[in-house]
Amino acid sequence: RYGLFTQTSTSDSSIIPSSSAKLLDNGIDMIEFLGRVVGKALYEGILLDYCFSQVFVQKLLGRYSFLDELSTLDSELYRSLMQLKHYDGDVEELCLDFTLTEELGGKRIVHELRPGGKNISVTNENKLHYVHAMADYKLNRQILPFSNAFYRGLSDLISPSWLSLFNANEFNQLLSGGSQDFDVDDLRNNTKYTGGYTESSRTVKLFWEVIKGFKPTERCLLLKFVTSCSRAPLLGFKYLQPGFTIHKVPCDVTLWASIGGQDVDRLPSASTCYNT
């Protein structure tokens, strides 16, 4: 809604702060606040249904990113730079210089990759410097103000020494869970029943039978419907907070018949923190 984050162009659709965030009123402050929200989720063991770009997480962990990691952020730019790196012709004919042009808020903004970059042409002799300078800007310099703000918020709740124990993949797994499928038996063994249901109830047995017949994507959609996150906790459903619950809701037949099947006495609980 606010344009604070954008999806990367890679297949995993991870997210990274958008350059346009700095044009918003209090954009940096909002990113710092989001850092606190994520820190609170990590502290409470609450899963979030997205993952951050590896490059962004590297910044949160205080680590520098290198050229090869550009493929995890912008695969098209990475391919273009690799083609330029191995180009056999006269690079100067491509009319490149040491700048990067970015469109923000309807305006074209030129960033110099090195001092005086707009006056430095890319040649066969300096093309490797250009490739690495472009990668450095995209991977490190461009997102640094946002990662610093997010880190300030995150570290208000999560100790930096604790963060340093993990790499980028492990951080994302802690944040959003494991693989894109889950063990139905594990979920069943860690499910609570309330409102009159028990594990031996006919409806409950039918529920688990149907879930086992689902495709992995369908199971993940069900999990997202109930918990708002499509992935299981990294260490299994024993660590889902709060626990997965199936609750029996009695329905008054007369009431349902009179209002067209809408149960107005019950508040919605799907896709919320109740996991019910």
Automatic annotation (TrEMBL):
Pfam families: HECT. GO terms for molecular function: ubiquitin protein ligase activity. Residues 1-276 form the HECT domain. The active site is at C273. CDD domains: HECTc. It catalyses: S-ubiquitinyl-[E2 ubiquitin-conjugating enzyme]-L-cysteine + [acceptor protein]-L-lysine = [E2 ubiquitin-conjugating enzyme]-L-cysteine + N(6)-ubiquitinyl-[acceptor protein]-L-lysine. One of its GO terms (biological process) is ubiquitin-dependent protein catabolic process. Its EC number is 2.3.2.26. It comes from the Eukaryota. InterPro entries: E3A/B/C-like, HECT_dom, Hect_E3_ubiquitin_ligase. Belongs to the UPL family. This is HECT-type E3 ubiquitin transferase. It comes from Aegilops tauschii subsp. strangulata (Goatgrass).
